[in-house]
């Protein structure tokens, strides 16, 4: 698959990029797709939106729906980032909102939820991710209590790669039918097999293109279950796009499908890129399952042949996402020493993260091991 990333990889041949969990390289097909968005804008001008919403968006939704196991694609909508979706979902609920989450959510939700607390808009219960082996049971117990208006949980934790097992069980355990359940699937989408078919009528699901979907910034999506959030307070004109030409009503109109969580005008080039990447992967016979298998073999090769820089978290034998996390007192120092050797990784606190992707092969891992500064 490396040949499909020639523009990124050849831009700096000496660089070893092992941060697929962060800024994933974009396949070459995304370059042509990005250019096509510009060409369509120049040729169609105002009429480009008919093409975007009539062809590009529906085709991309169909491919996403197939990847995550949805029965239909009209429950999906796009936004430039997942934070928009978090704010829009929250706006459907009356404060103070009782929130159940974890201590390992990505900065976007972690920061926002703390600010809600400061402003008196939310009361947040955070279940510790560790110990990992009891997490699902502990979180399920809290979810079953019926004490929360909003439940927000990552499918794969960004700061460890720990995979939450039993999502179906967690969702089905929620006793209060009106509770909003949101799954952050960013570190799972196109990194490992995902099928939310069994819970699609009950849970929101959000992810995007910046990481393993390889489509870059500005293209995130949300699956909206029927019956939840009919009229978000935080709204944009795309949420009522189908009603623009109809008579004005007393109430602000909303679409019946997932687009009711749409926002305002956005740059559609990211959707072009995501469509092209998903089409390319399908043409190459690459699935989320095969990506996970390939990455898993590379991770194992590294673990069997490289000296350890710290404590593997979660430990060997547990499911993990597409990066390895090592707890070490010198995570920042190791990151900088690797960077000096043109090896790109990243760190979060005392955790060094090394990510793998389909643009890697065993030779890349061997070269990585040769350049290790420990």
């Amino acid at each position: 698959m490396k040949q499909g990333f020639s523009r990124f990889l050849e831009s700096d041949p000496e660089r070893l990029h092992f941060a697929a969990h962060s800024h994933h390289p974009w396949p070459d097909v995304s370059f042509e797709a990005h250019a096509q968005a510009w060409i369509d804008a120049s040729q169609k001008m105002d009429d480009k939106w008919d093409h975007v919403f009539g062809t590009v968006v529906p085709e991309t939704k169909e491919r996403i729906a197939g990847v995550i196991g949805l029965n239909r694609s009209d429950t999906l909508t796009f936004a430039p980032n997942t934070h928009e979706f978090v704010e829009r979902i929250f706006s459907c609920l009356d404060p103070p909102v009782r929130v159940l989450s974890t201590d390992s959510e990505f900065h976007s939700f972690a920061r926002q939820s703390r600010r809600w607390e400061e402003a008196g808009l939310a009361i947040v219960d955070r279940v510790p991710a560790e110990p990992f082996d009891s997490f699902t049971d502990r979180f399920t117990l809290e979810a079953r209590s019926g004490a929360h208006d909003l439940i927000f949980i990552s499918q794969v934790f960004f700061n460890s790669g720990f995979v939450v097992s039993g999502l179906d069980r967690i969702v089905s355990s929620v006793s209060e039918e009106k509770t909003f359940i949101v799954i952050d699937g960013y570190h799972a989408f196109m990194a490992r097999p995902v099928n939310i078919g069994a819970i699609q009528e009950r849970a929101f699901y959000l992810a995007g293109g910046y990481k393993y979907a390889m489509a870059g910034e500005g293209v995130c999506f949300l699956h909206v279950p029927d019956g939840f959030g009919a009229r978000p307070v935080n709204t944009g004109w795309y949420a009522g796009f189908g009603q623009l030409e109809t008579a004005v009503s007393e109430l602000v109109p909303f679409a019946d499908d997932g687009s009711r969580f749409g926002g305002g005008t956005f740059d559609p080039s990211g959707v072009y890129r995501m469509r092209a990447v998903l089409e390319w992967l399908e043409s190459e016979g690459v699935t989320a399952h095969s990506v996970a298998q390939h990455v898993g073999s590379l991770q194992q090769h590294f673990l069997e042949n490289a000296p350890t820089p710290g404590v593997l978290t979660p430990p060997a034998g547990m499911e993990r996402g597409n990066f390895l996390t090592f707890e070490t007192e010198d995570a920042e120092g190791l990151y900088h020493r690797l960077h000096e050797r043109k090896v790109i990784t990243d760190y979060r606190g005392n955790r060094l993260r090394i990510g793998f992707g389909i643009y890697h092969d065993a030779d890349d891992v061997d070269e990585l091991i040769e350049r290790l500064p420990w």
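The mean pLDDT is 96. The chain has two domains: 2-28+286-371, 33-281.
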